[in-house]
Amino acid sequence: MTEGLGAVGLVLARPARLLAVEPFFMEFITGIEETLAERDLSILLHVVPEQDAEVETYRRWADRRLVDAVIVVNLTVDDPRPAVLRELGLPSLLVGVSGPSDVPAVRTDNEGAARAALTHLLELGHRRIARVSGPAQLLHTRLRTAALLEGGAAVGLEPVTLEGDYSDDAGVELTRWLLARPAPPTVIIYDNDVMAVAGLRTALGLGVAVPDELSLLAWDDSVLCRLTSPALTTISVDVHEFGVRVARSILELLDGAPVAERWSPSALLMPRGTTAAAPGS
Q1: What is the DSSP string of 223-273?
Q2: Same domain (yes/no): 204, 114
Q3: Reported pTM
Q4: Same domain? 179 vs 197
């Protein structure tokens, strides 16, 4: 390994209040940290409110030579960050890429996971399918949306997607809106565990029986999902192992070695107490 500063940078452009309640990134970072520590490397974590501030962080890090490389997460449409990092000469690893990339990357099959979830729900007889997504500018949000629409069109359905922000408030408000429709959905998919837990609490508070009247499914498994009553059905990924794989790629990048093609761990459907056959099916 080349002599360096001993730090890898990770900037999270999201409200700090969300990180306090969302388990995903804490598990992800733990996997990275544990693997980097084997080589006496550390992770420099910085939380900012939006992407412009993230870019400014990279410029500051490069100017002060604070990190040897950076991990880039939550890729967006027309994402400016890879070009900025090339300009700054900061080695980088992209996380969550689906298609080809001229930058080292760890890939994720968001489309496959979305299709698997839809297949499961169709097999249960659901025809009125809704989803509370993450921010629409995120590439993985768009890929999941496209896969659901394509899969729905193949069987004559058009799933409804409402944009959320991963927060408890979004889970509450958008669930209320969906259940107030003249023909409410029989199933709602949530793009993270926090919104799903809030959605479950909201549905039960409105007197909607889960899963007899309404099924719920969460992206990202966590202790939150397992402790609800009923326990939430999830699309589960080994997030700690995901972080480990990211760290292994970063170590190869720092060593100047070819970065092996890696994928995030396969997503697995974990049926629990919030999914059942559609009413009347």
Answers
A1: HHHHHSSSPPEEEE--HHHHHHHHHHHHHHHHHTPPPPPEEPPPPEEE--T
A2: yes
A3: 0.92
A4: yes
